[in-house]
Write a structure and sequence with these properties.
Strand content of chain A: 5-15%
Helix content of chain A: 55-70%
Strand order of the largest sheet of chain A: 1-3-2
Shape of chain A: elongated
Number of helices of chain A: 5
Mean pLDDT of chain A: 91
Structural class of chain A: mainly alpha
Order of helices and strands of chain A: HHEHHEEH
Radius of gyration of chain A: 23 Å
Largest sheet of chain A: 3 strands, antiparallel
Oligomer: homodimer
Largest interface: A-B, 29 and 29 residues
Number of strands of chain A: 3
Chain lengths: 119, 119
Amino acid sequence: MVKFSQAGLDASFTALSDATRRGVLEQLGHSDASITDLAEKFQMTLAGMMKHVGVLEEAGLVTTEKVGRVRTCKLGASRLEQETAWLEKQRQLWDARFDELDEVVEELKRKEKNNGSKK
Amino acid sequence: MVKFSQAGLDASFTALSDATRRGVLEQLGHSDASITDLAEKFQMTLAGMMKHVGVLEEAGLVTTEKVGRVRTCKLGASRLEQETAWLEKQRQLWDARFDELDEVVEELKRKEKNNGSKK
């Protein structure tokens, strides 16, 4: 059984809860980029982009490296494994629960039909 | 190709970014529960729990129904399909990118070895 880090999940899902931050991750999935590149691409101030990148860094989704005056962003060590595992576990519970409810509905339908045929 | 609803992903990932809200979803995956039950289980005030349930409701992850004085919570229509699909897509990009980097490293190693053997 996977033991989830609640603080880790908090940080990752917070990082993923913003469209720009998800966009940055998709971009870095294709190629590394500087903060300036990212700010331009997402039509944002440098300060605004640095804040978003900071949130992604805290969640381990991005790492940055400053060489000279350029800070380059690349994908971090987190591969979203915990997050994917949590979603999968939840979806399994979900499916089991809906299957249960389906059975209850089927059972009610059968009873209804039997009652109808007895009339 | 899946077309993602950015507002939907924002709402879901925000809802998932809190350990109590994730706990509520897990609980409702096992059985429906009243706000009072949930508040007790998570050692929280009724008002605090109602707020969390409100965030889950907005994301479509929970629905509630008030019968008499009891508000019962159950799983909502969202099955986290978009969220799982988004994570999967990102992980594929990730893997491809890391494979690419591995190849670059291998290539450098080969060159290094060849240079070494020439000396």
